[in-house]
């Protein structure tokens, strides 16, 4: 079968193991069913996720113009502490920013290669953890807007990492830790304005990814350079496809590319 479409982050279902879907305009591909099968991928173009034009993708699936203009790519997306909708202050489009920022957010601990702190909209739990390839995670606080989540993350970053080591995550070079204990140790560093939002009773969420064989030395595929690739799919973790020859492909980092998949 040949499928053609623009890459966007895989949709997921929180089952054991996690189920992954590639959603193209005319096809819905259940990626778990491609495990142990040869897959051929060819780059055939670009399609900005905002304007839809065939322009080079700059960041996050957007062309350069959209990345710098559209409300969907404001700085507060990557840096939640810059959110200002709770003050009625516009960044690029106040209506859009109110809709996204003024809703329940979670600050969490996730362990993908090491314990890290992160922020997500409540509606994105556990999707966000799946996308990061975390094998365990726990919520710390639930706050009513993105700003409060952002300032909490900034305060906690002094005491816990905020980045994942993707190679370690893919190699499954991981250990189980007691996130409840981590959470309790961090409690003292939550900013005063957020202390009341601490979630008192909580337990770890465990995630199991569909991986048959972990790569020993993950080698990231640059499809823009290589233009095409063929390999046997042996796993899916985070937003990465893992192939038998140690090649890994980060779907999320390649959003906006139009590909032809031959499976
Ligand atoms: Zn665009």
UniProtKB/TrEMBL annotation:
It holds the Pfam family DUF2797. This is DUF2797 domain-containing protein.
